[in-house]
Specification:
179 residues, 7 helices, single chain, mainly alpha
């Protein structure tokens, strides 16, 4: 059946009887329902949505909290490392112990006094031109440099007691440097 035939069939049906009034005419008329909320409800909803979007955007694009850089404690780091070297001096060869002491003190010079000690030889470091006038108290480490060079590079056999003595002297010099 086509749509046109459906409409024709509907038009040919008899009409329904007229609507009758309510059986209780004493009832009051129903109140009319308002069409929707007032304008201020829409305004409040819009403000809420905009503020939530602004909060989301602020959370996404806010600058990250800057944490303060960790403070270096070169004396504490060097002292801890020297004590670790002293504890392992009997297990390592004297040349390894001397190299570790040399590296520890050179890093300490770099971090404490801004002297590029890890990049210089002992002779370059402890000559008069190697240490700036502001850091002349580093000259007390010159004797240690002779000992660590001798233990690390000298062909004479060295033992672990000499290496332990070097570490002890380095710890004593570092203690004096703290004061």
């Amino acid at each position: 059946m086509s749509l046109f035939a459906f409409f024709i069939a509907q038009a040919q049906q008899p009409e329904a009887p007229p609507l009758q009034p309510l059986p209780h005419p004493g009832l009051p008329d129903p109140t009319l329902i308002t069409t929707g909320p007032s304008w201020w409800v829409y305004a409040a909803a819009a403000i809420l949505v905009i503020s939530l979007l602004a909060l989301i955007l602020w959370m996404l694009f806010r600058p990250a909290k800057v944490s303060p850089p960790l403070l270096k404690k070169p004396w504490q780091t060097a002292m801890t490392r020297l004590r670790d070297i002293l504890a392992q001096a009997a297990l390592k060869s004297p040349s390894d112990t001397a190299a570790a002491v040399s590296e520890t003190l050179r890093v300490y010079f770099l971090e404490s006094y801004k002297i590029p000690a890890p990049f210089r030889t002992s002779q370059e470091l402890f000559q008069r031109g190697g240490i700036p006038a502001t850091s002349l108290r580093l000259t007390r480490y010159a004797a240690l440099a002779d000992i660590w060079d001798q233990l690390a590079f000298a062909p004479v056999p060295a033992n672990s007691s000499e290496a332990s003595a070097l570490v002890q002297k380095a710890i004593e010099s570092l203690e004096e440097d703290r004061l």
